[in-house]
Design goal:
Length: 58
């Protein structure tokens, strides 16, 4: 039995709607900060790349 089925059986409609609303709310908040996250991620990757090339001696 999958997690979705288990959730459906234990909570019924209310549980499923709650999960969907929670996911939508999370994504809405995440999208708001997505630019910031991408910027942080990019600088992080760039820094790791610099260190990697320094180790390679290039």
């Amino acid at each position: 039995m999958s997690l979705g089925c288990l959730l459906w059986v234990s909570c019924g409609w209310h549980g499923v709607i709650f999960v969907l609303v929670s996911l939508m709310y999370f994504f809405k908040k995440a999208c708001k900060h997505l630019g910031e996250y991408l910027f942080i991620l990019w600088t992080w990757i760039f820094r790791i790349g610099e260190e990697y090339w320094a180790i390679q001696g290039l």
